[in-house]
Amino acid sequence: MYLVSPPILLLLVALVGGSWSAWRARAQGAAPAVRQRAQLLALLGAVSAAAGALVLLAPLNFCPFELDGDGNANRLNVMLGVFILLGGAFLAHRVVSSLVGRWLRGEALPGATETRTGLFSGPGSTLLALLCLAPTLTILTLFLYYPMFDTFQLSTQLARLGAPRTRFVCMRNFNQLLGDPDYGRTVLISFFLAAFIVMFSLAFSLLIAQMAYRPITGGRFYRALLVWPYALSPVIAGIIFELLFHNTAGVLNHVLDSTFGFKVPWLLDPTIAPWTVVVASTWNILGFCILFYIAGLQNVPNDLLEAAAIDGASAIQRFFRITFPLLSPITFFLVVTTTTYAFFDTYGLIDFLTAGGPVESTTTMMYEVFEVGVVARNLGSAAARSLLLFGIVIGVTILQFRFSRGRVMYGS
Amino acid sequence: MEEKLGLPYAAAPVTPRRRRLPKRWYAHVILITAIIITGFPVYYAVVVATQSNTQVFNYQLTPSTYLERNWDLVIHERQLPRYMLNSVIVALVMTTGKAVLSLLAGMAFVFFRIPGKWLIFGFVLITLMMPTEVMAIALFRLVGVELQWGGYDAMIVPFIASATGSFLFRQHFASIPGELSEAAQIDGANPLQFLWYVLIPISWNAIAALFVIQFLYAWNQYLWPLMVIHETTLKPVQLGLRSLRSGTETGDSFGPLMLGAVLASIPPLVVFLALQKQFMSGFALTRDK
Amino acid sequence: MRKTFLVLTLLLLAGLTLLTPVQAQGCSADAPCEIDALIGFTDHRLDWAVERAVEFGEMFPQYVVNIESFSDYEPLLDSYILSQEQGNPPEIMQLFEVGTQFAIDSGYFKPASDIIAGRDEVLGQPVDFDDIIPVVSSYYTIGGDWSSVAWNTSTPILYANLNILGEAGIMDLPMTWQAVEAACEQLQPMVDAGSIAGCIVWPNHGWFYEQWLAQQNTELVNNGNGREGRPTQVLLSSEASLNIVQWHKDMYEKGYYAYSGKQRDWSGAVQAFNSQQLPFIMTSSASAGGIMRNAAENGVEVGTSNMVYDEEVGWTGNILGGATMWITDGLEPEIEEGAMAFLLFFSNTENSASWHQTSGYVPVRNSSVALLEEQGWYEENPNFLTASIQLGESQVTIATQGAIFGTFVETRNIITQAIEDAMLTGGDVAEIMAAAEEEANVLLEEYNLLYVDE
Fold first, then answer.
1. With b meaning 16 or more CB within 10 Å and e meaning fewer, what string describes C47-58?
2. In A82-202, which ranges are E strands?
3. Which of A225, A378, C31, C294 could be stapled to C24 by a disulfide with Cβ–Cβ 3.0 to 4.6 Å?
4. B90 or A6: whose pLDDT is higher?
5. Of A132, A226, A345, the CB nearest to B107
6. Helices (H), strands (E): how many in chain C?
7. A119 chain-B contacts, CB cut-off 8 A
């Protein structure tokens, strides 16, 4: 038994998709041609939205909307179901209507016209091109797209590595996470670490690059000595910082204790340990950022800065009005890269430095996926965590792109 | 303000740049501090690599005489050279494979007419947003459980295609004027000859950039080998370092671990320092692009 | 540059082909069969195992036993399961006691009794399981059958640095929680003066909790601790359970318990004790070998005593800890024979005795104990007897036999985490344990859904 039966659900979605398309098309005017087009768009919108929802929900047998034995619906399940329904509908609707819209407006489909000259066009050239692409496409399909699909599939299962059977559990793996304060904390920690790692590494690297890029006595020497820690792996950063911050053998506490008379529980206190991870990660990635900032700063035209100086702009004004805006493509690139680093590559560092502790205060989403999937062998829950992490990272990336649009200058 | 600034400009014959800026003592201070802060952890790691545990626990900041003993443990008993060799093989094969596949893909994207090219390109580009790490569990089910791989194959094959690389070369080739491929065709070169004799020779910087990034990526891999490699003799170095780590209740643990960490950092450092210049120009970021 | 590039690629491909292992047919001295054995040690205990493997190879040149080492039992188990799923499992694995039920359910292993099939020797290595000490056979045999071959057995004991205690004027080793607290109070001035870093350390590990539960004669799971039927409930909210966690928390909050901030930090704890930062450590008897050797090198006098218990509740007994050796199912018969012969050799009378002397693990054979007594070992090394006495004097109850259930490994981690939460977050012990209990029960329920036939 369903809370709402699947055909009705699909009809509802189709209705919403259709009217949305119609409304958007109407807004363009009332000419007969436009009206006709609107009818077509509305129809396509309805069909595509329903199809999008169906593609995602059919494999699940619409289970989020199923009633349990007592005839009750699980509220979290239904919410997740609605989310999947709307998500699938929205994506399909968006793709179809944008393509159809282009076609109706008589515009070319993206990439349909080649503006390049000198294309190879001999007999069999298309075949050759496809052959050139085949290895890349095969590998990506097999080892990225398929596991992605499998992760979706797994996330609806109760599955343990090596267990003789699996069970379909619908949204249970997600339900457990959404109601779990520990999971919320893990998400917060991941964001906390990412935010500070990105902020610190960018701020310090820009400051240092600002000092080092200009002709300065020993500049080459400085630059060489500042950049190389980037070549050290996160694991090695974790190993070295564990030595520095160790509770009994740590030299840092020894120095603090002998000069200032206090020690910091770097790895022991759940409120301090995340900062320790931030420090180690920042150290690890700083060189990479410095490298790109120095290159970027060397590209800032000197005449512009000089002109500003002549106009009476102070060094700080020059930096914020000219240098920083000109660096924005690099800043944007570095924000994206360091965010990825913070979310994923810190795994090795954390594993050696804190092993996710104390009190899980440095357990990031990525760390937890491994802990749950491999150490606790709970594949279904790990898959659900993977998907949520994936969704979050996609969300963050899209936000970064949105935010950067119009703010990032890509030069001439 | 303007007058004040204007005068010395007119008076002095040296480049305006030098004079305009004040003495940069503060820059030196900041840079030296930065170097000490970034350098100290590694300096200390090198020092500890020569110490016994008792010395580590006594916070000795100068090198000691235990290097030979630690060296013996790391090199002979714990097979670090074997782990490093594994990493070198995996990193070189993976990097080379990525370069080759990306070159081919980049060429196909730019110099050919393919129906639905934008769709294929989108298919590749979207994978930039799909980090393998997120799918590690499912990837293990495929590579480990279904395909039953557990060696170099498992470490290399799933990663041998690169969206980054395909994208990089596509961008790079797109900036090449069409006359070049026209001329090549007039000379009767087939596409592969064109790739070999024309594209690759003018793409060394981009190749080097990809090489550095992917070499470091391959060398730093940890999570995936942790799941998929279980033969001691096949472990890459990041995994091998685990065997040097604590666990030893009695023997010295910090010295050998630090020695291992320092040794394991040498190959990527060499690659990075050797190709730094090409790396930067490959990204078309330096002044002389 | 282009040529070098090409040559390099070709060389690499050639190298790859050469490095691919060639499968051998049959076992002979010329082409010996490889037997991989996973062991959870990385120190002198690993060296001991490697030496035995070499000796075995000399006796049986048709086999080569490769010992692969892991820093702990958990990663060892993870690695084994992954390699099983990859279709290339090692022949032998060392599995800690809590994995027993899982190992049986997994179907990965062939029971030792099935391999031996009633023989009294395998390749000339005698089988004499009646010689195994009772505490071990009662834990590991199910219906009189051995699933695995007994090897390392331990129990936690208290080690004390008598030099430091002497300075503080402490003459008697504490045997109870209350006595430890009193001693720590007396040592506090030395901690304040910075001459020692703390009073007592033990690894934060569920094993210690389980021991204290047994001492208070309390079960960990229902259905007779899992020995009368599949358990359905994990019992973490019992009075005894809360008592343990509360004491742990109190010890930490008073600054007596020195926590490294890392769970399961066995080596960190021992290193802190060995570098004379703390006067007390409570850890496995298996660390006796290393600790005593370190003490001798550094002129430290070390004494041992039983694992401290709550005086107010009293002491029923301790559970054994340690691990046994399991043989993978589905091996070639010749390799299976070799693996079994190796394990019988590995745990024979002489080797069990020498293993005890090296590590401090309890000798698992009566004949080994007799041999050691004959050599006067215990008179010279009284600290090595403490563990045997503790296990020998334990009453056999359902609680001290130890629990058996499929999610014991995961549950142990949940308990370890809960104790850390109680110490470091300052939360309410009852609430923390209730949440941990719920988590453990969900896992158990899920496990039963996937493994247990209805």
1. ebbbebbeebbe
2. 157-158, 167-168
3. C31
4. B90
5. A132
6. 21, 14
7. 111-113, 178, 181
Question: Quick one: pLDDT at residue B246?
Answer: 54
Domains of chain B: 80-238+263-286 (1.10.3720.10)
- Pair of tokens at residue C283: 């850890």
Cβ pair B104:A251 closer than 8 A: no
Q: Which two tokens stand for residue C156?
A: 């936690």
**Could you please report the per-residue DSSP string of C182-246?**
HHHHHHHHHHHTTSSS-SEE----HHHHHHHHHHTT--SBHHHHTTSS----B--SSHHHHHHHH
Direct distance between the N- and C-terminal alpha carbons of chain A, in angstroms, rounded to an integer? 62
* Gap from A274 CA to chain C (nearest CA, Å): 13
For A171-205, b/e burial (b = at least 16 CB within 10 A) is: bbbbbbbeeeeebeebbebbbbbbebbbebbbebb
Give the whole-angstrom CA distance, residue B194 versus residue B203. Answer: 12
Task: Give the domains, in start order, of chain A with CATH numbers.
Answer: 1-109 (no CATH), 176-405 (1.10.3720.10)
B residues 65-104 closer than 8 Å to C (CB):
89, 92-93, 96
pLDDT given for residue C3 in this prediction: 54
Residue C152 φ/ψ, nearest 5 degrees: -100, 125
> Do the Cβ atoms of B113 and A114 come within 8 Å?
yes
Strands in C156-161's sheet, in edge-to-edge order, are: C200-201, C280-284, C156-161, C302-306
C357 has pLDDT over 50? yes
| Mean pLDDT value across chain B | 83
Question: C149: which strand partners?
Answer: C325
Q: Which chains touch A (3 or more CB pairs under 8 A)?
A: B, C
Neighbouring C-beta atoms of residue A48, cutoff 10 Å:
24
Residue in C108, C410, C451 nearest the CB of A376: C410
Quick one: pLDDT at residue B287? 36
Q: What pLDDT, in 10s, does the model give residues C202-220? A: 999 999 999 999 999 999 9
B136:A373 CB<8 A: yes
What ipTM, to 2 d.p.?
0.87
Please, what is the average pLDDT of chain C? 90
pLDDT level of residue B12 (50, 70, 90 thresholds): very low
CB proximity list for C367: less than 8 A, separation 6 or greater: C131, C349
8 Å CB contact of C290 and B227: no
Which helix (DSSP H) or strand (DSSP E) does residue C152 occupy? strand C149-154
Neighbours of chain C (3+ CB pairs under 8 A): A, B
E strand residue ranges, C218-320: 280-284, 302-306
- Give residue-wise pLDDT tens across range A291-333: 889 888 888 888 888 888 888 888 888 888 888 888 888 898 8
Say yes or no to pLDDT of B7 above 50: no
Q: Hey, what are A17's tokens?
A: 């998709």
Out of B28, B141, B159, closest to residue A150 by CB: B141
Q: For the residues C121-137, what does the mean pLDDT come to?
A: 91
Cα–Cα distance, A198 to A337 (Å, whole number)? 9
Instruction: Nearest by CB to B45, from A140, A240, A345: name it.
Output: A240
Given a contact cutoff of 8 angstroms between Cβ atoms, the answer to whether B66 and B60 are in contact is no
Q: Does A347 touch chain B (CB under 8 A)?
A: yes
Task: Band the pLDDT of A349: cuts 50, 70, 90.
Answer: very high
Q: Which positions in chain A touch B220 (Cβ < 8 Å)? A: 233-235, 345, 348
Q: pLDDT-based confidence at A158, cuts 50/70/90? A: very high
Helices within A341-378 (DSSP H only): 346-353, 365-370
Higher-pLDDT residue of B129, C436: C436
Q: What is the pLDDT, as a whole number, of residue C16? A: 54
Residue type, C222: N
Contact of A83 with chain B, judged by CB distance below 8 Å, is answered with no
